[in-house]
Amino acid sequence: MNLFICRSLFVSLVVYTSMVFSTFDPIMAQENAYPLQMSEGKKSHRPAVPGVNGLVTAGHPLASIAGLRILMAGGNAIDASVAVLATLNVVRPQMSGAGGNGFLTYFDKNSGDVHSLTAAGAAPKALVANERIAEELNKGIYAGVVPGLLGGWVSMLKEHGTMSLSEVLMPALEYAENGHPIEGSVVQAIESQQDLFRSYPSSAQTFLPGNKVPEVGELFKMPALASTFRKLIEAEQTAAETGRSRVEALDAAFDRFYKGDIAEEFTRFYEEEGGLFTKEDFEEYTPIWGNPLHIKYRGYDIYSSPPTSRGGMEVLMQMKLLERFDVEALGANNHTLTHLMIEAIQVAKSDIYQYVADPTQFFVPSEGMLSPDYLSLRSQMISEVESMTYPTAGKPEGYDQTSKEFWNAGKNLQLGSNREVSHAGSTTSFSVMDKEGNIVACTPTHGGSFGTGIVVGNTGITFNNGTRIGSTSPYSEHVNYARGGQVPILNNSPVVVLKDGEFVLALGTPGGETIGQTQFQVLVNVLDLGMSVQDAIEAPRFSLFAAPNFYKAGAEITVRIEDRISVDHFEGLQELGHNIELAPSYSLGSIQAILKNTSLGTFMAGADPRRAAYAVGW
Questions:
Q1: Using one digit for the tens of pLDDT, what is the confidence trace for 273-322?
Q2: Model-level pTM?
């Protein structure tokens, strides 16, 4: 069906959405230190959304609808995902964009295979991190990595898509050119970065129209980004008109971005502003398709992202560390189960921060870290009756092949120049299912809010600030210290779950350090506790934070838990020795998930009320 015909038919079709109950406040803090437990009469604030021909659940309603438009026009899950990604660039510019990075996990229904895409760029080769203070590598002209996502969009279409780039960019292009009513969280993010934006005319023109912070609901446009999108479409269409194949036409768009006049504009801008990127940095980038990490868990096959994601390894290790315990018997809202999961997170993170790095430059003992025997041994560290001190890393098979710049985390580590502080991330996530049963889970990110905070010349694009602490280590002797030409570590780790070769669950979340932790909890809610997709998403969550960070054995661990738990739950965790703090209700993470009812064979999507995320189906 023609895309434009599909759009005209769209208004006459019934579209199920999770916009019901949209007046619910997702950041509802409680004053009482011991709040009442969530009412049994209302476990969730949004309905799960059914789909027969397709489902999209994303971090903004317009992004979800953009993906649905493509599905209704005959596109597959990959085509729809590129439309979602491009639209997120416009409606969630602080969290994702063509200049960002990200990971994708894809289940190909026809082959039964699961694939992983790493769309993450490296720091400029000229970077010498010790010459810069922490804030210079967090925001501004010296921060940033090569844009990964735009190349990922094109590679997705080449490898597994069916549509042209021009077709899937159309929803985003319309919002960029014609505008959309800007949402409150974007306005807040712009307000928080306005001083930096005013330092660069290109940033001010993009995010401060009329030289002011936009009002909530104001029609917000991104004409410079629209112009870049049109250049990519022009490159593709010109190549097609000269008889080149669909793949060659997509390559033409890729080359214009990374080797043509768009890359030249990137280079010009950075040279004039005294930055570090050169044309060679952009020319050498390529997205990477590979095998995801995989475990067996109670009869399920769980897949997630390989390094340079630390989150994929983390969530899979956490599941295996928990597997020896009878989780179903413990049940939901049980402080002992929460305790066991807290301990599993600590054990996993001690290994993650020891061994995960850019696999193109360092050996990562992934197989040893996921070995059932190794994880069974590490699981024995977990006691049911007391909490542990944050441990040192273990010694999985292959640990002795790692670089000398890996070290067994200790207490006497030397910082790089003024680089102890960690910076929060800004990420989003979505999941898509098409009528053929192909599944995408994807988690893109700008790193911190708006990435570097600098719109690069006339492109409308900001780069991911992957050089910041959080994506890099503060310790100059560690492999993950910021280095020129090296891909920083991300926590993005979208998950796909199969059973007997059939799809069961797809999910992903933003949340920086908490991504793997949040996904772990929702996986347990569904696979062990049998929750529905929306109940699993909305159940109270916790997250671990480490002082000074998770690199150091013996770090002080604080557990923040959403304040809808019971008094008994709170006090039970304290009695086990945990340092517990209450977090506002509905404040940790933002899961977007699709779940199959295996007994009925039907599919439902859930969207997290913690952010302005929505699910749609048809």
A1: 999 999 999 999 999 999 999 999 999 999 999 999 999 999 999 999 99
A2: 0.92
Whole-Å CA distances, 271 to 186, 267, 347, 417, 455: 30, 6, 45, 25, 14
As a whole number of angstroms, the distance between CA 452 and CA 419 comes to 17
* Structural domain harbouring 553: 299-404+508-617
Is residue 209 included in any domain, yes or no?
A: no
Q: Which helix (H) or strand (E) holds 114?
A: strand 113-119
Q: Quick one: which H or E segment has residue 432?
A: strand 430-433
Distance CA 503, CA 441 (A): 12
Asked if residues 95 and 128 have their Cβ atoms less than 8 Å apart, the reply is: no
Over the stretch 446-484, which tens digit does the pLDDT of each residue have?
998 999 999 999 999 999 999 999 899 998 888 899 999
Token reading at 512: 């920086």
Question: How does pLDDT run across 137-164, given as a tens digit for each residue?
Answer: 999 999 999 999 999 999 999 999 999 9
- Give domain status of residue 43, yes or no: no
Count of domains forming the chain: 1
CA angle (232, 238, 243) in 5-degree steps: 130
Residue 593 maps to a domain: yes
d(CA 382, CA 480): 28
Other Cβ atoms less than 10 A from the Cβ of 369: the count is: 27
Q: What is the pLDDT of residue 1?
A: 44
Rounded CA separation 444/490 (Å): 10
Decide: 484 and 126 in contact? Cβ < 8 Å: yes
pLDDT exceeds cutoff 90 at 419: no
Alpha helices in 431-584 (DSSP H): 515-523, 533-538, 567-575
What tokens does 202 get? 């290109």
What are the φ and ψ backbone dihedral angles of 314, each rounded to 5 degrees?
Answer: -60, -50
